[in-house]
Amino acid sequence: MRIARFLAANFIFASLAYGAFADTLVLKNGDHLTGTIESSDAKEITLKTDYAGEIKVQWSAVKETATDKALYVVKTDKATVNGTVTAEDSIVTVHTANAGDVTVPLSNVAIIRSPDQQQAYENSLHPSLFEDWKGGANMGLALARGNSDTTNLAVGFNADRKTTSDETKLYLSSIYSTTGTPVSATTANEITGGIRYDRNINHMVFGFVSGDFAHNGLQDLDIQQTYTGGLGAHLINHPNTSLDVLGGVNYTRETYSGATVVGGPSTNVQRNLAALTVGENFMKKFGSTSTLNEHFYFYPDLSDTGEYRSSLDLSWVTQIKKWLGWQVTISDRYISNPPIVGTKDNDVVLSTGLNFSFSH
User: What domains appear along the chain, each with residue ranges and CATH number?
Assistant: First the structure.
C-alpha cells in the first residue's frame, strides 16, 4: 500500500511539474493546450507536444497564452526582445529581465523563436566555411560486350553553399567513352569544372567572380581556363523557383596540342581571349521530388568581333529517396571558330544515371 501511495504521489508531482514547466495556450473554445512553443508569426503558433507532435494553431483561435521559458520576439522593425511571453486579445507582452514588460501588438510581431531556433538563426548569419553545403554526385555506366564492345562512363559532382549574404557553387563533370569495334577508339573524353562566388549587394543585386575549366581530348583541347567577374540580379528568388541574370567580362586562356592549326601545322597552340559574359541561371521545383536546373552563358569575343562561344547545361533530378535520385543531364558547348583542323564547332553530351544527394 505504501509503495502504491508513493508511486501515485510521484505521478501527481510529475504531472504538476510538467504543467508548471510547459507553455500553455488557452483557446477561445475553452480548450487548453500544453507543450513547447517552437516558433510563431502574426498568423499562427507552432506548438511541440508529447501527445501530438508539432501542431499549428491560428492566433485568431487563441484567447491567451503563457510561456515558461524565455523566447525571442522579433518585431517588424527588426528589433528583438527576449523574455517569457504572455498574450491576450492580440497583445503580446514580453517580460524581460532588464527592461521590464514590453508590450507589442500582434500585428507588429514578425516572428517568435525558441532559444534553439534563435541560435540556429544566428549561426546561419555567420556559418563556418564547412557548414550549409548541399549538393550531390551522379554516376552513369554502360557496358556492352559481344557483337558490340563499348564502355561509357559519366560522373559528376556539384555543391552549393548559400547564406543570407553570399553563395558559393562548385561543379565537376566528366564523360568518357570507348569502342572496340571495328577498331579500338576513344569516342568521348571531356572534363569540365568550376567555382563561382556571389556576394549580395542588396536583396536583388549581387557581384560575382568565377573560374571555369575544361578539357576535351577529341578537340585536342588540353585546358581552357575562363575567369569572369561582373554583376547579377535575382529576378526571382523563391525556394521553389529562382532566376538570376548576370553580365560581366572574362579572360580565357586555351592550350591545344598535337593537332594541325587552321592555316598551318603546329603541335602546341595557345590563345588568349577577352570576351563579355552574359548568362542566366534558372531553377524550378516540381512537387516535392523533382527539380529542373538550367544554366546558359554567352561569350562574345571582344578582340575578334563576330566570334563567340556559348555553353548550356540542363539537368533534371527526381528523388527516389531523400539521398537517392535519378538524374538526366544535357550539356552543349559551342565555339564559332574552332582553331584545330577537323574538329566540329558544337559538342552535345547527354548523360543519365543515379544521383546521390548530401547536405552538411
Answer: 2-125 (no CATH), 133-359 (2.40.160)
